[in-house]
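Hi P.,

Sorry for the delay on this. The queue was packed all week, but I finally got your sequence through. Input first:
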Amino acid sequence: MKRAYFNKIAIENQLSETKLNKDENHTMRVPSYQLKTNYFRMKTYTLLIALIFSTFSLFAQTDSIEPVLEQPKELVIEPFDTIYNEEAEEFEEPEEPEPFDEFATEEIDEDFANPEEVDTVHIRIGSHAVEIISNDKNTRIDVERIDSFQTRWENWDDNDFDDEEVKTIKHREHKKFSGHWGGIDFGGNQLLNTTYPSEIYAEGTPEFLTTAPEKSFEVNLNLFEYSWGFSSYIGFVTGLGFNFNDYKFKDNYTFKADENGIIQPVELEDSDFRMSKLSTTFITAPFMLEFQIPGQYDHKRLFVSAGVIGGVKIHEHTKTKIGSEKKRNNGDHNIAPLRWGYTARIGFENVGIYATYYNTQLFEKGTGPETTPFTVGLAFCF
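Then the structure:
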């Protein structure tokens, strides 16, 4: 009876424990979707840790590797004062270089002995001079420090250079506009379109103003010049100067004013006639527009200018020579006191040609022949 009672109690306890275990298993069960999430998360963490470890390992190996430079095959670079010992197959210690005054003229190796087979280049970089000598086999580079700038680079005349090897280019700074008027002009005179009005000259009056162009000259002293430009290549030019003219006549005639103030011819002895001329002196002032065309590096310029010119008479006289006798007449010859005309110049740098045509007649109107002065010549500017 008692045994049956205890067996019943044991069976009930066992059933209770079994039920409790089932309940615990039921409460501890994890859903399947959560298990999958945890699995992928652990896998991700594992890969991330492996990647970080690999990266640190790679950088550690890179820092420990020393770079290996490829050695040149054909290029041989020697210090300037280094002497190669073929027997010992090693270089001696270089000596302290002396102050560099000019490139050394020491003997070169046999490979560079023939100048026809060697190319040499000299380069100056800052305070160092570099000489590169090369042929089909080897290349030699010499480097020297320049302690003084009074070297061969400034004193070319003291060194053995061929003019064909060195070309010096001088650059001029952007210069201000400067015209081409000041200077000295030499030209030939001529009287154009000469006529003798019938109102004051009778028919048959000799042509006493026929000039000899090969003996008639003009000299201009253009002492003052003023230029102002729109740019360095175009601008206006003006100034002041003196104009000296000599008109020599072909025939044995001179002239003077009669009692009515009319210029009349005076015939000279033809036996030993030497010379008859008219001389005038004017103060002149031009006003021209000038264009300049620059050459290479702006060193030389072609110039073209044109404008008007005016003059004020300050002196006139006639002069004759018959045999050894000379006569000069400083009286009034009715030369126009004021005149104006057109002038033009063309040239290169400081040399050019000029021409002047006066629109004013040589004599005052109604007092002499009607004729127009014209001049062409060479201009030397300064």
